[in-house]
Specification:
This protein has 237 residues and is mostly helical. Helices cover 57% and strands 2% of the residues.
Length: 237
């Protein structure tokens, strides 16, 4: 999607002799609790051109799939309306009519976007749904710093917890213990560089540099790597 956005923007700017961004932000890819949010999201999307003041009725927007949800006719091969319409009845004509009424109920009214309930820019659903996703797909998964959404969903151990486990393995080796603690906090705690830096009394860039140097050391020392793996298991990382 990023390539398509970039390539099309480059083509459009070249074709129409313009410069700068063409499309606003990245596309959204969210795991949705279908039973609780699917129809609300569908309505929200179909009312986008109405909220933007482009049309007064969603059926008037040329680029919308709305007409396929509310009128008889053949859908494009890539569009499946049965899932959403199934919430409004089994008979197609009645389901289309009820869906149209459902969408029109909010025309002219201000209402909160269902997307405001998105957790970590990734999940939309109730507490039980979020818990199910985390337990089924994220439990015991290593949290990497370069995936912010995953880091937010899988909260790592606190720095205090890391300190306790590190000292169990390294004891009074204060210099090495500090390096290990900083490395583990940087890689797996999910905390920001400033938080980690404040805890160890160093700057943000020093946190990243120290962690990088320790990784180089780890790659060459199998005994040290074994100890780090032991700590990771104790922290259930």
């Amino acid at each position: 999607m990023r390539h398509i956005n970039g390539a099309y923007t480059a083509y459009f700017n070249r074709e129409y002799q313009r410069a700068g961004h063409l499309l606003q932000g990245r596309y959204k890819a969210i795991v949705v609790d279908k039973d609780e949010y699917a129809v609300e999201l569908s309505r929200y999307i179909h009312l986008n051109p109405v909220r933007a003041g482009i049309v007064s009725d969603p059926s008037g927007y040329r680029w919308s799939s709305y007409k396929y949800y509310t009128e008889r006719g053949k859908n494009p091969e890539w569009l499946f309306t049965d899932f959403i319409l199934g919430y409004f009845g089994q008979e197609l004509h009645n389901a289309q009519k009820k869906y149209r009424q459902f969408v029109h109920e909010l025309i002219g009214y201000e209402y909160e976007s269902p997307l405001k309930g998105v957790v970590a820019s990734t999940l939309l659903g109730g507490i039980d749904f979020i818990k199910m996703i985390k337990n089924r797909y994220l439990k015991n998964r290593t949290v990497e710093r370069d995936v912010p959404a995953l880091r937010e969903l899988t909260k790592g151990p606190s720095m205090g917890e890391v300190e306790v486990k590190v000292k169990e393995v390294f004891g009074d080796e204060s210099t090495m213990a500090k390096k290990v603690m900083l490395y583990l906090c940087h890689r797996y705690s999910g905390m920001r560089l400033k938080e980690i830096g404040d805890y160890f009394g160093i700057g943000e860039s020093a946190v990243a540099q120290s962690s990088y140097r320790f990784q180089l050391m780890l790659d060459k020392d199998t005994n040290l790597k074994r100890k780090i793996e032991q700590i990771r298991k104790n922290l259930i990382l």
